DNA sequence: ACCGCCGGGTGCC
DNA sequence: ACCGCCGGGTGCC
């Protein structure tokens, strides 16, 4: 079941097209990506050298510990200098001069990566040995060996002197290798069976009005434990005075603390949002509730404050009071304050319990150690300052600072801003950037708000769920940080219970100066649909890593799309030391695992297990399924083309075959990728409706004569690639293409991405996909022309098609049998959806439409309309496959019509999951329309074959093999 | 002695 | 560094 994740290639970007998808995958494995492809290197050998200058630096290393080698070309004493640092980045010393010359040469010319292990640790205060191993691409082996021997160093073949992961000394590493199949299975199951029966259940606080299901209580219990538990994390042991990491063999003086958070990777529909809401309300400081309903309050007031829709307009079904917190104006100033509504329970007594938040515990023990048990100067100061800056005097004090904070926070929450300030306010700089930067590691009582970051498409879902699950008489301050009018006041943001925002807003803020979100000290940051940040090169990912927070959570249904590399960003966000530094991740986890090392895999499994909770729809709690979803069945409906359609199709097919077979013969299939893609797309469009083709009739594959012709042709190809409604992946950023441009060699990229390539490579700039020469002046943009005219043209000269008829007869039959059943009609081609509107209208179906071009506001309206059970609400939703992918809930539908096969079966599944999820009452029936004797049939065949393939799993095949199988697929598609 | 040897000063890059 | 290297002092045994 899970194996289908493997073939999802681009995952959430839904690059449905085989050519696009795997081609860029193939490219990823080829280019000069040594640094980014740590798993592709081979070991050239190793040699013994020495580290000098130890006495000048503080970095310590143990026997067997790994060290990193960092070039220092700016070193004033030697431009060849190579610095040696330990796992935590502290400098240990330098590589001895003569050896540094060699390393500098190898490193600067990118001939090999050099990794160091210290075999004996520090034996004197001046120098020590280091074993250097050289990793690189096979074609560089000779050069490296020559460099080494010409400087009369001796390269030992193999990893002699390499330390074993178990710490045994200086023996050749005996790694147990796994077969590709074992590896694939292990990887597939990496996120399975993580359910530890030992985790208990925990009820949510009263403020949560929806009863949690057993598995949700388990998740809550687990999440609270993750946030509160102070036990040593995995791979750490106490060794005398120090703490010792068994993987890197490093030790540190300060007690390493467990990641305060983790990955909640439950399947879609198991209630990750609800569980997270429960967590936020149930586990504030010291494991106490955030706030509770006032029990004595006779009439609960429905007031969910500081809340607005993305568009600033109140949603229709929104029962709670919706108020916009105006910029620069604190909601605390509202007149109808009812301070008693919020009771923030946070007792200081907890400080003395066993399980407390680390910061406080550390503080207590620190004070004791200093023999000042009741002191706590530093703490008291911060607290006072916090109180002071809020202009709030607090007189009651039970025990030290904590109670002050509590009252202070309660006051802040309930809006007692006009209390009598005894000292003058220091302005709104409650959180100064300096404080923020310096308070990373310690527990921070000022951190109070939870920041939720999600894709725009699920923002409204969070608001709905908060309404639904939080008791109306709980006054929860939720601020939607979105839109140009958003309140950027950090004091205001810090004082919220929750702040909701999107990845885009976050990265937009980040790119500016003084990002408010990066200034606030958060209690908790939650990344919803966290796999969005799997590519570490994106602005979003960089922005996310820079957030200042105590606790970190990732919510995702698909923790790994198809590669181990996807995991790194998640690990980095969680600050899973030391793997948040790429080198250690690569050396300890990624390369060993990719090369089939059993120990590496075990380490990876342990690592994942200690931060992840994942249950699937088929998981069981105490022998019972988590949730009982209705059945779901798939039937394939074969569609026969009419005589006329068949003739048209065959004409196009023959033409396409001729072109492609020529490319195959020439071995230029991949170079002519855009043409091949165009042919395939055209055939797929023919299968749906001839009107999909638009004016893309130009003959492909003929060399253009004039620049104008070439330009026209490129624009046409660009339109083909983009206009299908399927998503395109940029081979540079590996994300959906934004601001698309097409190169003269007919490859599509984001303009900024390819511009950067050209800028950095200058005259030698080459197309990342085909290595053809590219110039900035030759990039062609999509002209913003009048598509409307074409659209109306489409509708005026209306004709039906076999597939349209097949759908219509199904829908009509369905309506006559049961007119309460709602359907999703899904296509990758948005134009097809437009075409389908005509017969639907003709037959008097009420329908709505959801596609990627619609604004968020419109989407929310449409979904609400469709989900509503009011009489006269629509029976059908026309849905573009891409738009149907993420987060949305369409459980009102129980029939799905997949109009055209997608390349990525996972995309289809995701789409079906929109309705086959919690809340679905009926059995779900999925109908796939496949035109008999067409590319569609071949696509389905190849999909099935893919599912059976094993070796694709880890990307263990080398790039040329992958390219070959890609060509084979195209041949199979065209029956060549 | 335009050497060798001795012993003190010194020390990353 | 319980080294190596440098450079000054010194000089048969």
Automatic annotation (TrEMBL):
GO terms for cellular component: nucleus. InterPro entries: Helicase_ATP-bd, Helicase_C-like, HIRAN, P-loop_NTPase, SNF2-like_sf, SNF2/RAD54-like_C, SNF2_N, SNF2_RAD54_helicase_TF. Residues 806-965 form the Helicase C-terminal domain. GO terms for biological process: DNA repair. The keyword Translocase does not apply. CDD domains: RING-HC_HLTF, SF2_C_SNF. Residues 290-324, 359-397 are annotated as: Disordered. SMART domains: DEXDc, HELICc, HIRAN, RING. Residues 375-384 have a biased composition (Low complexity). Residues 730-771 form the RING-type domain. One of its GO terms (molecular function) is nucleic acid binding. Its main location: nucleus. It is found in: Nucleus. It holds the Pfam family HIRAN. Keywords: ATP-binding, Helicase, Hydrolase, Metal-binding, Nucleotide-binding, Nucleus, Zinc, Zinc-finger. Residues 450-577 form the Helicase ATP-binding domain. This is Helicase-like transcription factor. It comes from Oncorhynchus tshawytscha. The gene is HLTF.
């Amino acid at each position: 079941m899970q194996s289908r994740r493997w073939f999802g290639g681009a995952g959430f970007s839904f690059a449905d097209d085989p050519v696009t998808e795997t081609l860029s995958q193939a490219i990823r494995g080829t280019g000069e990506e040594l640094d980014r492809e740590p798993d592709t290197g081979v070991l050239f050998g190793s040699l013994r050298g020495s580290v000098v200058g130890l006495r000048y630096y503080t970095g310590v290393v143990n026997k067997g510990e790994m060290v990193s080698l960092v070039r220092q070309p700016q070193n004033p004493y030697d431009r060849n200098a190579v610095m040696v640092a330990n796992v935590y980045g502290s400098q240990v010393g330098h590589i001895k001069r003569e050896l540094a010359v060699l390393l500098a040469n190898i490193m600067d010319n990118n001939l090999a990566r050099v990794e160091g292990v210290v075999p004996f640790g520090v034996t004197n205060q001046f120098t020590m040995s280091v074993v250097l191993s050289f990793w690189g691409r096979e074609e560089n082996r000779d050069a490296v060996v020559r460099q080494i021997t010409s400087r009369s160093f001796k390269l030992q073949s193999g990893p002699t002197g390499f330390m074993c992961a178990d710490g045994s000394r200086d023996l050749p590493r005996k790694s147990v290798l796994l077969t590709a199949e074992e590896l694939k299975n292990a990887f597939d199951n990496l996120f399975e069976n993580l359910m530890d029966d030992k985790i208990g259940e925990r009820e949510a606080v009263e403020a949560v009005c929806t009863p949690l299901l057993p598995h949700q209580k388990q998740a809550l219990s687990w999440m609270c434990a993750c946030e509160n538990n102070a036990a040593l994390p995995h791979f750490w042991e106490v060794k005398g005075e120090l703490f010792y990491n068994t993987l890197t063999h490093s030790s540190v003086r300060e007690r390493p603390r467990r990641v305060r958070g983790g990955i909640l990777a439950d399947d879609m529909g198991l209630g990750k949002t609800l569980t997270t809401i429960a967590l936020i309300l149930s586990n504030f400081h010291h494991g106490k509730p955030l706030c509770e309903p006032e029990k004595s309050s006779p009439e609960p007031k429905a007031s969910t404050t500081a809340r607005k829709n993305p568009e600033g307009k109140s949603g229709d079904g929104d029962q709670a009071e919706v108020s916009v917190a105006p910029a620069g104006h604190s909601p605390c100033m509202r007149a109808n304050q009812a301070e008693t509504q919020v009771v923030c329970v946070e007792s200081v007594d907890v400080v003395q319990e066993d399980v407390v938040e680390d910061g406080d515990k550390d503080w207590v023990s620190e004070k004791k150690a200093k023999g000042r048990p009741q002191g706590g100067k530093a703490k008291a100061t911060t607290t006072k300052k916090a109180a002071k800056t809020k202009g709030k005097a607090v007189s009651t004090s039970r025990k030290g600072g904590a109670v002050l904070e509590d009252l202070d926070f309660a006051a802040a929450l309930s809006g007692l801003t006009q209390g009598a300030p005894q000292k003058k306010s220091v302005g709104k700089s409650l959180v100064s950037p300096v404080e923020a930067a310096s308070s990373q590691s310690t527990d921070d009582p000022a951190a109070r708000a939870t920041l939720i970051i999600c894709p725009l498409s699920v923002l409204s879902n969070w608001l709905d769920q908060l309404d639904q699950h939080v008791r109306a008489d709980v006054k929860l301050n939720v601020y939607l940080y979105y839109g140009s009018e958003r309140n950027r006041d950090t004091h205001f943001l810090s004082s919220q219970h929750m702040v909701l925002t999107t990845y885009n807003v976050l990265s937009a803020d980040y790119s500016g100066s003084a990002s408010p979100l990066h200034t606030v000290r958060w209690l908790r940051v939650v990344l919803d649909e966290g796999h969005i940040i799997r590519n570490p090169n994106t602005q979003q990912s960089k922005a996310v890593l820079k957030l200042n927070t105590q606790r970190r959570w990732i919510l995702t249904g698909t923790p790994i799309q198809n590669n181990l590399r996807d995991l790194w960003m998640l690990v980095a966000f969680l600050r899973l030391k030391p793997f948040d530094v790429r080198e250690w991740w690569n050396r300890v986890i990624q390369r060993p695992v990719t090369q089939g090392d059993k120990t590496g895999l075990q380490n990876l499994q342990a690592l994942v297990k200690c931060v992840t909770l994942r249950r699937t729809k088929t998981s069981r709690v105490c022998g019972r399924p988590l949730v009982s979803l209705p059945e779901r069945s798939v039937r394939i409906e074969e569609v026969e083309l009419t005589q006329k359609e068949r003739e048209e199709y065959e004409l196009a097919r023959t033409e396409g075959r001729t072109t492609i077979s020529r490319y195959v013969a020439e071995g230029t299939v991949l170079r002519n990728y855009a043409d091949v893609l165009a042919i395939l797309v055209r055939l797929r469009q023919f299968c749906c409706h001839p009107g999909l083709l638009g004016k893309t009739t130009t003959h492909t594959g003929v060399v253009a004569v004039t620049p104008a012709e070439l330009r026209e042709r490129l624009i046409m190809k660009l339109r083909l690639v983009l206009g299908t409604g399927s998503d395109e992946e940029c081979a540079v950023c590996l994300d959906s293409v934004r601001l698309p441009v097409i190169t003269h060699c007919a490859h599509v990229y984001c303009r900024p991405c390819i511009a950067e390539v050209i800028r950095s490579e200058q005259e030698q700039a080459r197309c990342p996909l085909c290595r053809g020469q590219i110039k900035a002046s030759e990039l062609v943009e999509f002209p913003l022309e009048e598509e409307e005219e074409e659209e109306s043209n489409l509708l005026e000269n209306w004709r039906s098609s076999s597939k349209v008829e097949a759908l219509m007869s199904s829908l009509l039959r369905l309506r006559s049998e049961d007119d309460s059943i709602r359907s999703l009609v899904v296509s990758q081609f948005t134009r097809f959806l437009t075409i389908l509107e005509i017969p639907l209208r003709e037959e008097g179906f009420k329908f709505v439409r959801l596609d990627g071009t619609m604004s968020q506001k419109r989407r929310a309206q449409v979904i609400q309309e469709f989900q509503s059970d009011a009489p006269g609400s629509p029976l059908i939703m026309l849905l573009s496959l891409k738009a149907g992918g993420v987060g949305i809930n369409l459980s009102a539908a129980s029939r799905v019509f997949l109009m055209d096969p997608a390349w990525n079966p996972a995309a289809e599944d995701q789409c079906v999951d929109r309705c086959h999820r919690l809340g679905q009452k009926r059995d779900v029936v999925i109908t796939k329309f496949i035109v008999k004797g067409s590319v569609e049939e071949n696509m389905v065949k190849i999909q099935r074959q893919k599912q059976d393939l094993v070796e694709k799993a880890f990307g263990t095949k080398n790039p040329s093999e992958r390219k070959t199988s890609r060509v084979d697929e195209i041949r199979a598609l065209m029956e060549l």
